[in-house]
Amino acid sequence: MLGGIAFQLVTITLYACLAIEFFVRYSKDMPFRSRQYNNAGDDTVSGKPQLTAKLRTMSIALFTSTVFLGIRAIYRTIELSDGWRGKIISKEVYFNVFDGAMIVLAMYTMNFVHPGVFLAGYDATSSEEAIAMKAQEA
Predict the structure, then answer these.
(1) What percentage of the chain exceeds 70 in pLDDT?
(2) pTM, two decimal places
(3) Residue 9: how many CB atoms within 10 A of its CB?
(4) What is residue 85's three-state secondary structure?
(5) Per-residue pLDDT, 27
(6) Which residues contact 88 (CB under 8 A, 6 or more apart)?
(7) Where is the protein situated, by its record's location annotation (predicted)?
(8) CA-based, 20 to 30 A from 39: which of 12, 25, 105, 135?
(9) In this structure, what DSSP letter does residue 48 have?
């Protein structure tokens, strides 16, 4: 059980690091590839797509949910590293706060900022810049 919780902690940490790296690259406009290909195969230089208010809200919700789940994973790793008769596992208030409350907060965060609502109809190619580029081609 400790191995599974430790794996969860490592996975959440890796996800958080990759997400931070993505947003740093996005904010500094440093993509891995500087060119993007359209359907015709012609290469066109493209800037970063606009981060809409809905996407910004969704990103903040994902960050918040990740923090809650990370706190829970850290708590569970520490709790189970002491064994089934440790000091931390025998205190119900710690379990309620650092396990149950973190899951409830993460769940409600994603319910209030539901991806189905905030990403509905979103298409990265329909940004204002992409629409302007398509208009120039026509």
Answers:
(1) 76
(2) 0.74
(3) 18
(4) coil
(5) 87
(6) 78, 79, 82, 94
(7) Membrane
(8) 25
(9) P
